[in-house]
Amino acid sequence: MDKLHVSIVGGSGYTGSELLRLLVNHPHIEIDQVTSRQDDGKNITEIFPFLPKKIKNKFVHPDNVSFEQSDLIFFATPNGIAMNFAEMLVSKGKRLIDLAADFRIKNIPLWEQWYGMKHACPKLVETAVYGLSELKKNEIKDAKIIANPGCYPTAIQLALYPLLNKKIINEQTIIIDAKSGISGAGKKNDDNLLMAEAYDNFNAYSVQGHRHEPEIEENLKEITNTKDIKALFVPHLIPMVRGIYATIYVDLNKDLSEDELDSIYSQAYDQSIFVHFMGVNKIPKTKMVRGSNQCRISCFNRDKKLIILSTIDNLVKGAAGQAIQNLNIMFNFQEEAGLNYIPLNP
């Protein structure tokens, strides 16, 4: 079987290097071009010595890259980059997965408000598929453009979907308290991300509003056919490298037994390879998912107040891993191809 040729635009950041780590052992993938401005011409293994020496590729400057041999292109770039390439690539029969936010929100004025720029290809946003793998498989199969979900939205939507889909919670009173490891901010020069600043420290940020909030609300409304959803979302930065941990508070419309809650989540995810409902009254831990494409979920019922706990690795299920899972669905590979990584412990 001929291998699928893929390229990565933005290969020197955290999500780009994570794509390389996962793709190198994918049985059906040949890595074609990997771009980097600052590392142009350098061997990938020189910049990332943790990668195996069988990777012979060199980084290519994005101005000199050719995608002629590529079947699919990953964009592991900042917001606002993929949308400038999308029309050209789609016109040439290429498929793309954007790990940034260019195609995540269908409401273009809302997207422009949150991201502070004019959208370059609003018509393509209409046809792009939001790549929440477990819940959008049929649409993903035929998609030309995949909007890979954000890390927070992945953990949060997987936790809320079964309840919203059954119409058993108040969709107007959702409160989300979520934490992210420092790698979620990307590889950049920011004083707040220095070890001396981030270590032994814990803080909220974007308290007055975070751009993942409209992404969560819009896509949950669509996949659960809910007229309106209001989610109060406050993210926090924690002094660890990897991990997303979401604690979600919702009001139940009726009292539910532990068996009923277990049944609701089991119906949603029993056939899922990567989403694990641990049962009621269990505590997911970030180390249960670290380095893997897994999501761990549990919940606690306290007098018709439900507390849902959800954790993922922000660089894997929250970024590169879910992108590869979407690729596998698009090209009819085994869904777990290249993703059979057991979480790291300890």
Structure in words:
The chain is α/β, with parallel strands linked by helices and 346 residues long. The chain has eleven helices and 14 strands. It has helices at residues 14-23, 44-47, 86-91, 108-115, 122-127, 137-141, 151-165, 195-198, 212-224, 258-269, 316-330; strands at residues 4-9, 29-35, 59-60, 72-75, 95-98, 129-130, 145-147, 174-180, 203-204, 231-237, 244-251, 275-280, 295-302, 305-312. The strands form two sheets. Strands 3-2-1-4-5-7-6 form a seven-stranded parallel β-sheet. Catalyzes the NADPH-dependent reduction of N-acetyl-5-glutamyl phosphate to yield N-acetyl-L-glutamate 5-semialdehyde. Residues 5-143 form the Semialdehyde dehydrogenase NAD-binding domain.
